[in-house]
Amino acid sequence: MNSFSAPPRDHVVVIGAGMGGLACAIDLAAAGLAVTVVERAARPGGKMREVMVDGAAIDAGPTVFTMRWVFDALFEAAGSALESRLTLQPLEVLARHAWSETERLDLFADIDRSADAIGHFAGAAEARGYRTFSAESRRVFETLRDTFLTEQRTGPIGLSQRIGLAHLPALFGLRPFETLWSALGDHFRDPRLHQLFGRYATYCGSSPFASPATLMLIAHVEQAGVWAVEGGMQRLADALEQLAISLGVRFHYGAHVERIIMEGGRASGVTLADGERIAVHAVVANADAAAITAGAFGGDVASRAARRSPPQRSLSAVTWALHAETQGFPLERHNVFFSGDYRAEFDDIFGHARTPRAPTVYVCAEDRGAEGIAVSGAERLLVLINAPANGDQASFGEQELLQWETRVFDHLKRCGLTVNRRAEATVVTTPERFNRLFPNTGGALYGQATHGWAAAFQRPGSRTRIPGLYQAGGGAHPGAGVPMAALSGRLAAAQLLKDRASTYRFQKGVIAGGTSTP
After folding, report:
1. Which of 42, 126, 407, 489 is 20 to 30 A from 118 in CA distance terms?
2. pLDDT tier at 165 (50, 70, 90 boundaries)?
3. Which domains does the chain have, with CATH numbers?
């Protein structure tokens, strides 16, 4: 049995070393609290994971690094600098897109280059549409950055108050009651461009036909910079872990939290599967809300957690991590091969709970980055298609998986890319496997789907209804994605520290008034 020394009075345990948990631990430790992170896996990262394939380490989770300012601010607040612990390479080509062997379009970090490329691809009118779309996406992002994304969760009225009556045009400009797909029609006529920019809804695990137009802000996020992390995305998790350790955070890996301890009506510690108890001042659960309400951390917490109708799950995925040689298509780091019928693809996933019959395919070529880079021999690839989050209800049989693999790689071949894959150099992950990695989610990779105007306000906030229990991660406010999950961790830390300060002031006042402390 593992054991720690008796915890100090201001001790916090963080369950989960994903982006939210790591960011939360860093802020709490920088504020002077003792922090222990308990993680069931063998290393940090959560969904940001890598797998070994044919002797090569391949990113098998998030592959895109954006919103660098989130991490710059996190490191700066902890007395460090991101560039001192991580090497980042800005990408000139954000992504290469294909619809067939002859239809290809690159988007660039430079808006003018993208507009020129779109003009050559689809005509001058579509290039003008791209510029108006880019301007609108920037306005939406700037409206929400400091009023919603970096602030505690609020409702529509609270958001209106934050934005202020003086900025009502900006509020109405968010277009929450329109879908992303319909809003794109104001800027583009070419159905291929509808697909390309509608795909931003999948960044938070949702359908462009059901998500609010507000999600167009993701276009500006990418235009503001996409970076390649030297060594792979896992290095980001490692860098955050090392920063946390330098601040005194203790990590306990291979440890499964069996129960959150409830004493006196508040969360006061955790019990591990090996029987160890860790008594603390507060608990931060870097886990999906569904795991808490389903009893993953014990019946006491589940019975007191907020009860609501189960939200629609976000997307899951089927992925192939490969070490393979490629031929034909000139890959960039990020590549998207679109299906012929986007609406049918999302109808299959969200309407019929089945893997799409003709899926769009994403390929991350991890060994590519700078323009003109040459790759010879086998390279590291992550091939991904979206799938329903039903991994707790259905499983892929060997024949079914082979069928989907054939469809996926045949589609790539029709677009000009041949992947010379070998079974012994391939690792496949299905929704069932994702559900085992992240229990009680069905394999959903982004928490709840962002469908409907109110979805963004319905994600759990930092503070739960249980005193002493806080929540972070991609399933909590402000949402899914690497930087958003990190923001959720920082918000959880800020709320915990605020509550702690309020309690201290209350207790100090009671003592000064001559009454015993409760």
Report:
1. 407
2. low
3. 11-48+65-87+231-311+451-509 (3.50.50.60), 112-224 (no CATH), 315-437 (no CATH)
